[in-house]
Specification:
The protein has 240 residues and is an alpha+beta fold. The protein contains eleven helices and four strands; from the N terminus they run ααβαβαββααααααα. 50% of the residues lie in helices and 8% in strands. It binds glutathione. The site of glutathione has 13 residues, from helix 3 and helix 5.
């Protein structure tokens, strides 16, 4: 679990000391390693809380209230020049120096590189991770995101065209994902950061009005992921 105010215990945390067991074994102080996650309770935000939980990295949530415009604050712009969440600040980046990263896909790849988890070692293993991560970033996010936008409009005429266009494209993308998952458990074979990226948006399927029963392979994949304890923690972490 992330820290928001005061330390919460994660699955690898020693009940007595509050120190992550693996960090203690490595002689590391988790307080100095705690990643700042600047985020909000949205699909792109959830991708990163899920990945951090799955990787067992200590993190602290810094909520950025995007409905109040906090993403426009000059301080946040230093971390995220595109004024969007999520962004992270890792005090222990490359060469032990602090580093900030924006764009959820870049953050996921960085965390995969940093931990060696959920990112295959071989280039041939990485290719489908890159493909399906880019597929998510370019389509399975921007398209349902437009559905979320148009569905909230009050004027029926404004809604109609946008919803027709983006709901059709969103359903097409679910169909692509369903075919991909027909003969494998996860999009790149083994569980990877690409699954976490896609899950962030699939988590919002009720909001973009997609019934997972129409896409049985996606449904199976979704339920398998959501049943993982670390995914649950990442989905339930308080981000706002
Ligand atoms: N491509 C970016 C998209 C991030 C994004 O769209 N973030 C939304 C919340 S999910 C946001 O910050 N919106 C605030 C705004 O548009 O002003 C990523 O994946 O990190």
């Amino acid at each position: 679990m992330p820290e928001i105010s005061g330390r919460k215990l994660g699955k690898n945390t020693d009940k007595n000391t509050g120190q992550e067991n693996w960090a203690r074994e490595l002689g590391k102080d988790t307080r100095k390693m705690t990643i700042e996650l600047h985020t909000w309770n949205t699909p792109n935000g959830r991708k990163i809380s899920v990945a951090l939980e799955e990787m067992g990295l200590p993190y602290k949530v810094i909520p950025v209230n995007i409905s109040k415009g906090e993403q426009m604050a000059p301080e946040f712009l230093k971390l995220s020049p595109n004024n969007k969440i999520p962004a992270i600040l890792d005090p222990e980046g490359p060469d032990g120096k602090p580093v900030s990263i924006f764009e959820s896909g870049a953050i996921l790849l960085y965390l995969g590189e940093k931990t060696g988890k959920f990112l295959p070692k071989s280039l041939s293993g990485r290719i489908p991770v890159y493909e399906w991560l880019m597929w998510q970033m370019g389509g399975f996010g921007p398209m349902p995101g437009q559905v979320h936008h148009f569905i909230a409009l009050e004027n029926e005429q404004d809604r109609a065209y946008g919803l027709k266009r983006y709901m059709a494209e969103t359903r097409r993308l679910y169909g692509v994902l369903d075919r991909r998952l027909a003969d494998r458990d996860f999009v790149a074979g083994e569980l990877s950061v690409a699954d976490f990226a896609i899950l962030g948006w699939a988590w919002r399927h009720p909001r973009h009005k997609v019934e997972l029963t129409d896409f049985p392979n996606v449904k199976r994949w979704y339920e398998a992921l959501m049943a993982r304890p670390a995914v649950k923690r990442g989905m339930e972490a308080k981000l706002d």
